[in-house]
Amino acid sequence: MRFGLVVNPVAGLGGRVGLKGSDGADVQRRARALGAEPRAGERAALALTELRSRLGAGLTVRTAAGAMGADAVAAAGLRPVVVHEPGAPTTPADTRAAAAALAAEVDLLLFAGGDGTARDVLDVVGTSVPVLGVPTGVKMHSAVFGVSPRAAGEAAALMAAGGTALRDAEVMDLDEDAVREGRVSARLYGHLRVPDVPVRIQQRKVGGSVTSPASVGGIAAELRRRLGPGEALVLGPGGTMRAVAAALGADVPVMGVNVLDRDGRLVAADVAAARLEETVRKTPAWVAVTPIGGQGFLLGRGNQQISPAVLRAVGADRLLVVATETKLAALGGRPLLVDTGDEELDRELTGHRPVLTGHGRTAMYPIR
């Protein structure tokens, strides 16, 4: 089977520094100035390492030169065959050119990036060749990505073994009108063909209606009850968490990670990972997150500011999962997911965990 790879080297660059995306040269310059380091190549290499472990080291991977693919292929111990030479710095035009060149030469095109990269691939590839995303972006609302880099490698290996069918999967784009209304939602941009491996390929983001403070009042009360004197509450992004904050008395950005005190006062809004790490090392804190509607991701999609360092400093027993019963029911029994970028931490977080659904109400739910 002929594999191709294209890497967006700057995908996910803005995540941990709180920029909510990495599209555009200005955002990328700002992210680097804030100390962001690219990880797309590292995560692409992890997917290829998993592929190599299952299919052997004799694979060749057609790709673009340097950071757009060849470096990751070599890091995984495989041989790159370069079909595109990008400019410097690389641009979305390079992604499209590399994907177009690879589409005619491969049986499966792997791409490492986020929703913007998926859109670029769709623009030039359409459904002419199967593709599979290695998740390296910030939000990744589309249903074309592995649930983790290793899962993407596993799915690619299964396809090579002839054990999977193909399906049309949604490429989603952030709905900016919904964000202005206080919701994190996405709209359909198009479809790509991906291996049909439900356990290893994520679902698309499903937008929900505006969550009112009244509907999460019991959850807010439970969070307040847990906070001791002088302790802080870190709230992840999303419409549910914004409604929780409102029930506690604070107005917070819908897409940011925010810090409240015990009395519901906003201590810090839209914080980046470095400041959050500093905060939780100085102040005892709890972290509250809610699963992404439809996908079930708790960590690693749109909330990279809650980094492994933050979670280790707080402690796994102080990670609180909150969701309305309606949101949990919409998952259809699928487990909650974590992809923090730290595989050891991901393993520590797996298992069953209580989900706060209201005042005095919890539901045990599996995390994978």
| Class of secondary structure makeup | alpha/beta
Secondary structure tally, helices: 13
Net shape: globular
Query: Over all CA atoms, what is the radius of gyration?
Result: 20 Å
Low-confidence parts lasting 5 or more residues at pLDDT below 50? none
Helix percent reads 25-40%
Number of strands: 16
How would you characterize the largest beta sheet? 7 strands, mixed
Nearest-integer average pLDDT: 91
N-to-C span: 30 Å
Percent of residues in β-strands: 15-25%
**Secondary-structure element series:** EHHEHEHEHEHEHEHEHEEHEEHEHEHEE
Strand order of the largest sheet: 10-9-8-11-13-15-16
Task: Briefly say what this structure is.
This protein has 368 residues and is an alpha/beta fold. Helix content is 33%, strand content 23%. The chain has helices at residues 25-33, 40-55, 70-75, 92-103, 115-125, 149-160, 176-180, 217-226, 239-248, 273-282, 308-314, 325-330, 343-349; strands at 3-7, 60-64, 79-84, 108-113, 131-135, 166-174, 186-195, 232-235, 258-261, 266-268, 285-289, 297-299, 319-322, 337-338, 351-358, 361-367.
